[in-house]
Every structure is written in C-alpha cells, then in structure tokens.
Amino acid sequence: MTQGRWWQSGLVWVAAATFAMAFKGIFARLIYQYQVPVNALLVWRFFLAVPIFWLIARWINRRQPRVHLSGRQWLVCAFTGALFFVSAWCDFHAIEALGASISRMVLYLFPALLMVMQAVEQRRLPGGGQMMIFVVAWVGIALLLLPGWHGGEVSLAGLLYGFGAAICYAAFWRTSQALMKPLGSVRFNQLSNSFTLLFMAGFLLPTLSPEQLAVSLPAFGWIVVLVLFSTVLPFFVLFEGLSRSNAAEAGVVAMFGPVVTVSAAIMVFPDEQLGPLQWLGVLLVLVSMGALKLLKPAARPATAAAGR
Predict the structure, then answer these.
(1) pLDDT value of position 108
(2) Domain range spanning residue 119?
(3) By C-alpha distance, which of 284, 282, 290 is closest to 255?
(4) How far is CA 308 from CA 62, 189, 245, in A?
C-alpha cells in the first residue's frame, strides 16, 4: 500500500465507521443532559435519519434494477423494522440508566445470543468451544456489574433494557438474513428503517407533547451530530469498506468499537470510571466475542449493524 493510497484500504473504511458508531452512546448521554426525553430523542433521530438514508440509497441504487417484493417479504421487512424499533427503544433507555460504556458492552453480547437462537432453531446444543465463549462472555458481564462504577449502583431496569436491546437486535439480525441477499444491504436498510420510522411515529410520537419535542438549540445540534456522524455516515462508510475488504478481517476491526465507547465515556463523564475488575470484564467480553467471530465467521454481518 503506497503512502498516498492508505485511505483506499477497506479496513481503514471499516475502522472509520466503527469509530463513528462507537460514539452513539456518548452523544446520547450529552443530549440527555439537556433534559431531552428518550422517546423525543428517538423520534428526532429517525425522522432526520431516514429521509437522508432514502436520498443516498436512491443515488447508490440509481443504476440497479427495481426489486419487487412479495407479500411475505414485505411482512418480514416490517417485522425487522419492529424488532429494531424495540431494540433501539431499549438501547437508548439502557444508555440513560447504565451509561454509555456498560450499555454498549451488554449490547455487544448479541452475537452470543444469536448463537443460542441458531442452536434453538437447529435443535442442537452449541459446540464445546461456543459454550466456553458464551460462559466467558457472561462472566465478563458479571464483572462489569460489580460495584465500583456509577456510584456502586446497578439499575435493574437499565440491565433489563440492555438485555432487551441485545435480544431484539440478535433477532433482528437473524431475521434480516432472509432479505439481505435478494435486496442488498442498502435497499434492505432503506426499507427496514422506514418501517422503524413508522413504528416510532405510531407508538412514540403520540406520547410526546409539543414542549417535549421542542428541544433546545444545543440539544438539537447534538442530535444532528448523532444522526450524521453515528447513524447515517457509518452505514455507507462501512458498506464501502466491506466492498473493499475481507468480511472476517472487517469483523475483527469492528470488535474494537466498544473499546472506543468505553474510553470516550471515561474521558467525558466522571461517573463512568471503571475499576480493575470492570476492566477485566471488558477484556473478557471483547476476547469472547472476537473468538466467536473467528471461530465461525459470518457473511458480512456488520453491514446490517451499521447505524444501529
């Protein structure tokens, strides 16, 4: 690779997307400091992001033939939108209750939960290596939840939100595979995010008063940063990176996203300092999820995760 072309490497693009996505929880916590309700943040995020997704996706697919979905495919697409709606709702509540770092580590368990779902579908127990990875990951989460951070208190509601986000996201990823191949990742995310927006409009928007939606100018500025830097941009940067690199290598690069989140949270928020045992928990979760990806590399899973 020549010095003038280092930026053309697919792994550089994947790393840039991973870095951007890692700041989602950081931006969310900054927005919460302006007394913005979780539901209001979610509504603003999707009402701003989905139209941008549509514009860029239409430009990318401008020379692609139109794909006609069957009735069943539309239902599956709507179901994935519903799954991600619940996952995002739980995730942003977890960020509010647990902080950016711990909520990200809990959500990062979704590959292990996906492994369990696959085992249930196939009616067989996971292999010995997979079971060991699963145990190590949960030991890591247990260490993370020991006293020594957030004033030594752990919110049960926050944990339930975090695990709910991870379970729904694993189900979203598993269900989306039926549509990723016939539609392509760009068109699939375009449609799935649109259904998520409809669920946001139907279930969250009616719960908000005009005063709750009328966020302050600084808060709105951070919402725009969240939408552009940690939602829309990472998807298309990651899409380009995966087209230039090996999926297994890209997955290893992407696993460092939680490290970025935890490091940034510690620097920005005084209440997210971790003790030695919590850092050991972070290491165990990262190593276990990285081993799971290396043990059984999946076919470009990160594309579906972009902007999520």
Answers:
(1) 84
(2) 10-305
(3) 290
(4) 24, 10, 21
Residue 156 lies in a domain: yes
Instruction: Tell which residue, 217, 233, 240, has the closest CA to residue 300.
Output: 240
Nearest to 249 by CA among 303, 185, 307, 294: 294
Amino acid at 291: A
The Cα 181–Cα 143 span in angstroms is 39
Alpha helices in 151-275 (DSSP H): 156-183, 185-199, 210-213, 217-227, 233-244, 247-254, 257-268
Contact 19, 250 (CB under 8 A): no
d(CA 98, CA 109): 16
How open is the CA angle 89-95-96, to the nearest 5 degrees?
A: 90
Six token digits for residue 2: 């020549």
pLDDT of residue 242: 64
How far is it, in rounded angstroms, from Cα 284 to Cα 281? 5
What tokens were used for 55?
Answer: 């514009």
**1, part of any domain:** no
Domain count, the chain: 1
Q: Check residue 308 and give its pLDDT.
A: 55
Pairwise CA distance, residues 307 & 52, whole Å? 12
Structure tokens at 3: 């010095």
- Is residue 178 scored above 50 in pLDDT? yes
Please state, rounded to an integer, the average pLDDT across all residues of the chain.
85
Give the pLDDT score at 288.
Answer: 85
Element counts in the chain: helices (H) and strands (E)? 16, 0
Banded model confidence at residue 103, pLDDT cuts 50, 70, 90? very high
| 2 within domain boundaries | no
Burial class of residue 68, CB neighbours in 10 A (0-12, 13-18, 19+): exposed
Residue 117 lies inside a defined structural domain of this protein:
yes
Is pLDDT above 50 for 1?
A: no
Instruction: Give this prediction's pTM.
Output: 0.86
Percent of the chain with pLDDT over 70: 84
